[in-house]
Every structure is written in C-alpha cells, then in structure tokens.
Design a protein that fits this description.
The chain has 56 residues and is α+β, with helices and mostly antiparallel strands. The protein is built from two helices and two strands, in the order H-E-E-H. It has a two-stranded antiparallel sheet.
Length: 56
C-alpha cells in the first residue's frame, strides 16, 4: 500500500497503463511510461468513487 506522501516522495515513473492507488486518499493515477508520479494528473471520478468511496 502506498500513501500519497510516500508516492510524492519517491515520485516513481509508472509503466504505460499502470494504475496506482493512494491507500489513504483512494485517488489514483494512470502511468504513461514517461512522466513521474508528481507530473501525472489524477484519474477517475464518478464510477470509481461510486464503487470505492473515499475513506472518511
């Protein structure tokens, strides 16, 4: 499990199509094989939030 802080600190480059979730925020990013974590936008929204609501 990766927290938002851990991912921001390590700033990994995700493989193209790789999906990584932040365990503490339920937000996720999808890799493009080029940009590091901090440069990628968050993905998803409606459907994933409905299925996996954020922890409160």
């Amino acid at each position: 499990m990766y927290t938002a802080a851990a991912l921001a600190a390590t700033n990994p480059v995700l493989f193209a199509g790789e999906v990584v979730y932040e365990s503490d925020t339920s937000r996720h990013k999808i890799g493009d094989g080029v940009k590091a974590w901090n440069a990628l936008p968050y993905a998803g929204g409606g459907i994933l939030r409905a299925i996996f609501p954020p922890n409160e």
